[in-house]
Amino acid sequence: MARPTQAHLGLAKHVLRYIKGILDYCIKFSKSGHPLELVGFCDADWGGSEDRRSISGYTFQLNKCGPLISWKSKKQNTVALSTCEAEYMAITNAMQEGKFLRQLYSDMNGCDKEAVSLYVDNQGALALAKNPVHHQRSKHIDIKYHFIRSEIEQGIIDFRYIPSEENISDMFTKPATKNKMVKFGVVKGET
C-alpha cells in the first residue's frame, strides 16, 4: 500500500480481531436419516457499486440446513437495467456452479443426478426463467443468460421462491448485519 493511514490500520485490526474470533469455527458434516440434497441460494443487488454494476452472490449446501459447501460473491460483468435482470444474471452464475456440483456429487456417489433446488428471492426473475416466451422488456438480455430455460426443461434445476429475509446468499450482495450473520450461523451470538 502506497500511503497507509490510521483508517487503514483500524480496518486491518478489525479484520484481525474478526479472524481471531472465528478460529474455532469449522464446517461439520454429520450423518442424518435424510438423503442428501444439493440446495442453492442466489441473490443480487442492483447497481450497488460505484460503476453501477450489480453484485451476484450464491451459496450451495447439502440439505437446506446443512453446511455450506460452495459460495461466491462477484461483481457482474455488465450493468443490469433492472433488479429482475440483475437477479437473472445471478441465477445464471449460480446454475453454472450448481451443474458442476451436481455432476461431482453424482460421480462421487454413483447415483442418479437429482435436480438442484435453487432458491431465488425475486419473483420477476423466476417468471422470466420459467417462461420461454420472449418478453419485450428482456429481449436485450444476452443469450448466454437464457440457457437457464434449457436447464429447467432438462430437469437440472428446480427453482423455488424464498423471501429475502430467509435467503442466506443475501449477505453476499448487501451489508450483512450481526443479526443476519447470527441467524445463518456465520457468527455466534444471540439475535
UniProtKB/TrEMBL annotation:
This is Copia protein.
